[in-house]
Design a protein that fits this description.
alpha+beta, globular
Length: about 280
């Protein structure tokens, strides 16, 4: 671990990020155009004291999870992220593997989407980022761990908790789409990857998954138009726009509705309700 290089790198990149780049208000009495230490700590979900010690060359060696959070908070490019890992004494992540690192381009777009649901997914269907409207519509995925982080996994293991968001007539199509998407990840990452582990666990736990997996459908496509059900607002017709990274390892999903429609009004209401009214399941 090169403490000097790590501290200098963090300081330089903190100074280079503007509050508006990460969806923060500049506020009054800001001495420098960059971020404050406490703002980086907040964005990276760590204590201000922990982050401060890293910049002061006296902190412990950060874990790879901490480094991934810092890379997202500082909007680092893949090359910058790899450098951060190396000066912190860790090997750079395998760029072909499934990680929590979010492509900066996708993150910049999501930061600007405040009035319509938007979220970033990886190849395993794990939610890496979501705005407040997406949390209100789908629930907050931030506290999930292990395979439970994957919407694909939850769809088959906890159908009573996941499927009510879709009309009953659309659930079979959604099941096929989930399996076909996981087949893409399995083909790209291999049988010894996290995708392979998930396939084996789902095959063991869900007869429906096993049957659909045997069909060998391969597709990473998101339905252009769908109906989603909110426990307070009810059905919402949305158009789904998907923005994929160049290697198709991550996708930004943006849900919109035509102007001056009932669906658009419902989406606006989501931003008002936030997650306060989200109960997790219909009552």
């Amino acid at each position: 671990m090169d403490r000097d290089a790590l501290a200098d790198f963090l300081t330089r990149h903190r100074d280079a990020v503007r509050p508006s780049d990460v969806g923060l208000s500049p506020g009054p009495r800001r001495r420098t155009p960059g971020l404050r230490r406490e703002e980086v700590a907040q964005l990276a979900a760590m204590s201000t004291d922990y982050y401060t010690r890293l910049e002061q060359r006296r902190g412990p060696q950060p874990s790879t999870q901490m480094l991934g959070s810092l890379a997202r908070a500082l909007r680092l490019t893949p090359d910058e992220r790899d450098y951060l890992y190396r000066v912190a004494g860790h090997p750079a992540p395998d760029r072909a593997a499934v990680t929590d690192y979010v492509a900066p381009g996708l993150q910049r777009v999501l930061d600007r989407l405040v009035d319509t649901p938007a979220l970033v997914l990886n190849a395993l269907g794990e939610t890496l980022l979501q705005n407040d409207a997406a949390r209100a519509l789908f629930g907050d995925a931030g506290g999930l761990t292990g395979m439970e982080r994957s919407g694909i996994y939850r769809w088959f293991v906890h159908p009573e908790q996941e499927r009510w968001r879709y009309p009953e007539g659309d659930q079979d199509r959604q099941s096929r789409a989930q399996v076909a998407s996981l087949r893409v990840a399995y083909g790209s990452l291999g049988a010894d990857s996290r995708a392979g582990d998930m396939v084996r666990e789902l095959t063991r736990r869900s007869a429906e998954f096993a049957r659909l997996w045997d069909a060998h459908e391969v597709s990473r496509r998101f339905e252009d138009h769908k109906v989603l059900i909110h426990p307070e607002i009810g059905p919402i017709e949305v158009d789904c726009q998907a923005l994929l990274t160049e290697d198709e390892s991550q996708v930004l999903l943006v849900l919109t509705a035509p102007p001056r429609t009932e669906a658009e009004s419902k989406l606006r209401l989501l931003t008002v309700l936030g997650t306060q009214a989200f109960a997790g399941e219909p009552t």
